[in-house]
Structure formats: C-alpha cells, structure tokens
C-alpha cells in the first residue's frame, strides 16, 4: 500500500493526522490543501489527532475515512480518497468537523481478507476517483459509481441491453448492469460478526494503470512526471497511486435524516452485495441536496486504504488478512440498535436513538456475548468412542536413545505409555515373540511407566520391541518401540 507521510505539505500526506497548519493559499503555495484535520475551540484550532496515532495503522496504509485527504479545487492535492465536491458547488472542499467526528466515532475492529477464491469475493460498487468529471469516463462525478458496464466474477462485461439481475450472482448484471464488479476478498466486523459491504475505486482517466477496466488491479506506479494541475506545477509530479484502486469498507451504522431529507435510507446495512449502497447512489440526482446527500452516504465508510502493487510481484500471489483493531469504551449501540430517528413536530427534525429497533433489547443493547456447551458434554459408556480412543495410546519417547525426560537419575531408565484407560493389560514382547513383561493397570491414572526391565527386573537389551495393550470389552492395539540402552556407568554408584 501507499504509506501516508507525516503531517507536512506532501502529496503522500493522505491521512490527515498530526499537526500541520501551513500558510493560507497563495499563488506559489498550496496552503490549506494539506491541513491536518481539526476543529476550532474557543478561537483556537485543535487537531483531531495531534499525536498522529491514526497515521500509524498498518504502517500508515489504512485510515478512518474521516481522516482521509480530499482533493482541493486547485488540485494541489490530487489523490484524496475522500469526497470533494465539484467546482462551483456549495459543498466544502474539505471534510467538515461533523463528518470527521461521525466517521471516527463509527469505526469498528475489522478483518479484511484478500483471497484468490472467487466464492468468497465481494460484490461491490466501483467508484470513480477522477476529480474532474470532464476527464472521467461518461463524465462521472468523483466517488459515484463508474459509468461502465458491470463485470461478472470471470470479468465478463454486461451488455448494453442487460437489466439488473438479483438471483444469479454469476451474471455480469448482478445487482446492476453498470458500475459494479467484484473485490477479491471480504470484510468482517469482528465486534458483531457481520460481513460488511465494500467498494473500490479507480480513476478512469488512468487507462494505462488499469483505471478503466472495472477490476481491482492496482499497479506499482506512484507518480508520473509533470502535469498541468496544481500538483504538477508545484511538486512537478502527478499522482498515479497505482490507478487509484482505493479500498472502502462500509460500516453497518445508523444515521439520522436531517435538513428535511426524509425520502432516502442512508443507513448502510450488513453485506447485501452493495444493493442498498448502489440504490442510494441512484437517488443522488443533481439538486439542492445532491452533494450533501452523497457526503452522507460516504460517511458510512469506516476504513480506507490506498493499495499499491509491490514491483516484481503479482496480485493475489497468496491469501492475506489485514486485521484492524480499535479500543472502545463499554457502551451501547455498537451493533444494530436504533431506528433512523423519528420526525418531531413535522419540521424535519429528528430525535436520534429515540426508538429501539427491538422494543425489549437484550441487556439494554450493551455489549453481550453468549456461548453454549451443547454438544461438548462428556460422553460415557460409548463403545464407539472407546474404540476410537485406542488410536491415542502411545509410548514416548520413541525411539529411545539412552535417555528420557521421565528419568530421575543416572541409574533410572524408563519410558511412558500414555493415554491409557483405567483398566488394561500391557504385554511387552521381543521381536521374536518372547513375552518379557506384563503390566496390569487398574487405576484412573492415564499412563504407566516401564523401567526398561523384564519380568525379573533385569535390564533389557537394545532393540525393537512390541507393546500390546488389551482393553477389556473394547479392543487392543500394538505399538512398535525401539530403544538404545546406555552402557553401565560404574561412576554412578
């Protein structure tokens, strides 16, 4: 992946942690395009993460969506994974304080698995990452579904006449004939056990870097030289970032309808093949609430990564798991708990958390874990289990080379026959069939020690022996054991 730089005026500073408050924009300086995110308290600017803790997750390659950079209007920052409104809109060009706080507050501990097994892949929306809709395929706006045919798991494209299919996931038009593909893996919320919706991006202007193929296939190119944007003019390079195949992991969070927008449900559910997410994007028709609404959809993103292929390697050479962990206080509402809110006085206001999804929630929706021992109880008087347990009987060490850990002195010699039932008869034979020792066991202890002596307490010779264990009413088992005896050491006397 692309590790974020520490807080500085740097194109690699894509996780806006730390403290960086450069001078305001001027004709020769990118200014607030590289501010650390924070808020104003009593007239003073306070950074959200002054110690840069969120800039250190997996070497700075994963971050909460709320701390991700946005591309500014002058394109000094030209690689932001977060939403930035098109030029001329009334939406802010940086993430608002409320957006950042909401996004960070909703992050959960997740596992992201990358796998070559298509049966485990995630159906997801492919998002346009080019900041300029005039350069994007189909003039798509940034962080809206790509205006290109959807792909099947085998990367077959949908045809122009295909319609959405909801029952056969093998078809390229599954969920939608446009704007969707497959991410080679899946994400799990380890706090709730839910599988999560995902999305990935690509910059359709970067055709040579896989940005127009609807596949998650980042390359290893970080920058290209030159460019006419602010970044090209100021830094002398333009961001490629592997084709901008950014990864987005959506949480199962719960938002509240505000500002009078009550017709859309932007609470993204647990994994539903991105059907809700894609449907919500289709409702974002241009209008007074268009950009505000798109921001609210993306506020349900928990985690973001900028992947970059390591030069000399191929994608999915092996399966891999990224484990992201956060600590949270003991509190409610870490899984599905509330309705989206209810209108008050018909004025479009809401009362967040006023209605439980379950009127009588378990443990008042505080964290609660349950388990069962059903099927784990001890089975007694089960002959089939007893016969199976015969295979566990063993003798250790085997082979024996003049020493075992069970011996207590230089004169002691012994091995241990283990995993024995309470009652059994152990008969030890030479390879020629001569019986040299019989041990009758009748105790709850699960082992017996053999002192490597015959029935007359004479030490045995080195060689191969057969150990026969007979269990009444169950069966018998024969073990082969090889021992090398050490010579008598007279100095031990």
Identify low-pLDDT runs: 87-93, 256-264, 336-356
Strand and helix order: EEEHEEEEEEEHEHEHHEEEEHEEEEEEEE
Percent strand equals 15-25%
Overall geometry comes to elongated
Strand elements, count: 24
Distance between the amino and carboxyl termini = 68 Å
Biggest beta-sheet profile: 6 strands, mixed
**What structural category arises from helix and sheet content?**
mainly beta
Please state the CA-atom Rg, rounded to the nearest Å.
33 Å
Instruction: Enumerate how many helices there are, as a single number.
Output: 6
Q: What is the strand arrangement across the widest sheet?
A: 3-13-12-9-5-6
- Could you tell me the mean pLDDT? 83
Helix content: under 10%
